[in-house]
Amino acid sequence: MGNPHHPVPKQLHPVLKLYEDVVRWSDLVKIYEFGKPDAGWEVQPNLEKVRVTSYEASTPVEIEPWRWGQNASISYVLSDRQVVKQLLDQQIWVSDDEGDSWYRENPPPRF
């Protein structure tokens, strides 16, 4: 594992903020756009029934150069059940161009 005290790359901050905003506004189909175009992730059905109620992210940690991890605790309700659920979104963010652009390496969580 890399240095947990290494400063977060400048271009990663806005990507993480945008991802958080997309999740918070429950526009969950768009989280699949944070992966590489050829990622081949299958969009989970019925995401329109998910309403996110909270998103709390840890500070990103360097795993190795140009590969960072972040955990987010996400609380949500399903509109047809009204039961609060929670999941841990373990995110891996990678840059192939030394930090100019970032994408999510692992698939989004299942709600």
Ordered list of secondary-structure elements with their pairings:
Blueprint: H1 12-24, E1 50-57, E2 61-64, E3 67-78, E4 84-94, E5 103-104
Antiparallel strand pairs: 1-3, 2-3, 3-4, 4-5
Q: What does this 3D model show about the protein?
A:
This protein is mostly beta strands. The protein has one domain: Nuclear Transport Factor 2, Chain: A (Roll), CATH 3.10.450. The protein is 12% helix and 33% strand. The protein has one helix and five strands, in the order αβββββ. The protein has one helix spanning 12-24; strands at 50-57, 61-64, 67-78, 84-94, 103-104. Strands 1, 2, 3, 4 and 5 form a five-stranded antiparallel beta sheet that branches. A hairpin with an 8-residue loop joins β4 and β5. The relative contact order is 0.24. The model has no long low-confidence stretch (mean pLDDT 93).
Gist of the model:
The chain is mainly β and 111 residues long.
Keywords:
single chain; mainly beta; 5 strands
